[in-house]
Amino acid sequence: MEAALWYVLTGTRGGPNRVRLLRALADRPRNANQLAADLDLDYKTVRHHLDVLVDNDIVESSGDDYGAVYLPTEEARDHWDTVEEIIDDTEAVD
């Protein structure tokens, strides 16, 4: 899981937005439309990044496709110290 977190959140071009999404979801579960509004991102961009996070078992969804609410997986929460390290590293770069 740690390798997947580092790759998905820092090793690809969309990493910074995925970090933002994951931080927001850790604060409280939300659907894609709420995330797009809260983070001032395009809805399609949010959906793409959520799909990447779901494919890598970092977030999971509950509900139907349109109104699905996303939240970090239990495995991601078990490795939250790595997520916080990644967040700290990305904030240091900004």
Offer a quick outline of the entry.
The protein is mainly α and 94 residues long. The protein is built from six helices and three strands. It has helices at residues 2-10, 15-27, 32-39, 43-55, 74-78, 80-93; strands at residues 30-31, 59-62, 69-72.
Write a structural description:
This protein is mainly alpha-helical and 94 residues long. 66% of the residues lie in helices and 11% in strands. The chain has helices spanning 2-10, 15-27, 32-39, 43-55, 74-78, 80-93, and strands at residues 30-31, 59-62, 69-72. Strands 1-3-2 form a three-stranded antiparallel sheet. Strand 2 and strand 3 (69-72) form a beta hairpin. Helix 1 runs parallel beside helix 6. The chain is globular. The mean pLDDT is 91.
Summarize this structure as a short list of keywords or feature phrases.
11% strand; 94 residues; mainly alpha; 6 helices
**Span between N and C termini?**
25 Å
What composes the largest sheet?
3 strands, antiparallel
Q: What assembly state would you assign to the polypeptide chains in this entry?
A: single chain
Helical content stands at 55-70%
Instruction: Give helix and strand order, one letter per element, not per position.
Output: HHEHHEEHH
Count of individual helical segments:
6
- Uncertain ranges: none
The computed structural class is mainly alpha
- Major β-sheet strand ordering: 1-3-2
Beta-strand share of residues: 5-15%
